[in-house]
Amino acid sequence: MTEQTATTTPLAQRSAEELEAFAQEQQQAYAALKARGLSLDLTRGKPAAAQLDLADDLLSLPKGVKDAAGVDTRNYGGLEGIRELREMFAELLWVEPEQVVAGGNSSLVMMRDVLVDLWLHGGVDSERPWSQEEKVTFICPVPGYDRHFTLLDWFGIEMVTVPMHDDGPDVEAVAQLVASDPTIKGMWLVPTYANPSGSVVSQEIAARLASMPTAAPDFKIFWDNAYAFHHLTEEEAKSADILTLAAASGHPHRPIMFASTSKITLAGAGVAFLAGSVETVKWYTGHLGKGAIGPDKVNQLRHSQFFGSPQGVRDHMVKHREIIAPKFAEVERILTERLGGLGVATWTRPTGGYFVSLDVLDGTASRVVALAKDAGIALTPAGASFPHGDDPRDRTIRLAPTFPPLDQVSEAMEAVATCVLLAAVEQVRGQA
Hints:
Number of strands: 14
Structural class: alpha/beta
CATH topology of the largest domain: Aspartate Aminotransferase, domain 2
CATH superfamily of the largest domain: Type I PLP-dependent aspartate aminotransferase-like (Major domain)
Shape: globular
InterPro entries: AspAT_Ic, PyrdxlP-dep_Trfase, PyrdxlP-dep_Trfase_major, PyrdxlP-dep_Trfase_small
Strand order of the largest sheet: 3-10-9-8-7-4-5-6
GO molecular function: L-aspartate:2-oxoglutarate aminotransferase activity
Strand content: 5-15%
Helix content: 40-55%
Keywords: Aminotransferase, Transferase
Number of domains: 2
Protein name: Aminotransferase class I/II-fold pyridoxal phosphate-dependent enzyme
Low-confidence stretches: 1-7
Distance between the termini: 34 Å
Organism: Pedococcus bigeumensis
């Protein structure tokens, strides 16, 4: 993940007369934009219809109803999921099959269930249920994933932020926080092509997170590997092997990994995965069994047959890349051509994942989103990448270009650029 900036005269270096002319130009462009009556959406990281079409063969599967062990998948049982699918994704996630649970269609549900279980019963290495602690706090790297923050807020768990860098969270800040505060029970992390920055946690940062001393004996890393296979270039980032690192450091129960096929096959009918120590897996399925008899093993069987092997998953993701990489290239092209050199924005250039993180002038993100809304372009709310929706600098906007067709991505990004420029010149002139 890199950042791209500009190559012409920054607005802050222009004269009052030049700013006035530029402002008039942008006001006219914005008026013309509104007059077009657009209705475009860059809010959520959803797969496009063409991506979903790649998995159409699932609809004619499975062939037969028995898994590799001869178990009838139509019946009850098998809380941990069918063996062949667990083996397939164990190889992809760099873990052992015994460390993997294949579940329903949503990894977010698994995350919520794990939080509930920790809250009510504590973890494998807990002294007591988290609900009996005086306070529970999580570390949240920012910018980050809004649904993670929503879950914590729902529980009443406090959140403390640390910056997210190209190679992962600010590990020195994390280490200092966890070393002395026993109320800090966990942290969120999207380790590969992070939402929304596209950052990739390095093996070195992962090793430090796995080994650092923590005041809470049951500190957890919620390792949400949602985009592990979602590459945008031929050079594919490899996720850090957090479970092995943690086990080698004497903290085998610290990380709990999540992943899914939601953006690989069918977003609403995929398979989610949880991985952790063998003890963590037994802990999870033990609690799961109080309210479930087994997952949708028929769906798991069809996925196993559809992919055929771990390489089948990799090959399938190349087809996704061919569909969405041009959309990210278009975002980069328009931002560079329209905003480059003006000193009004920086943005990420991810090599995988589903988002571009756009940083505009401090104090203008909310204005950009409002201008876009009035012009018919829906953007994720400013601040969504921060706990409680509070971006202290009001500058970060998450762009999600995967879902619209390419021509709509172009239209939407041209409109976003116009809104950024108008908001920027308004602020610069107000400060002059």
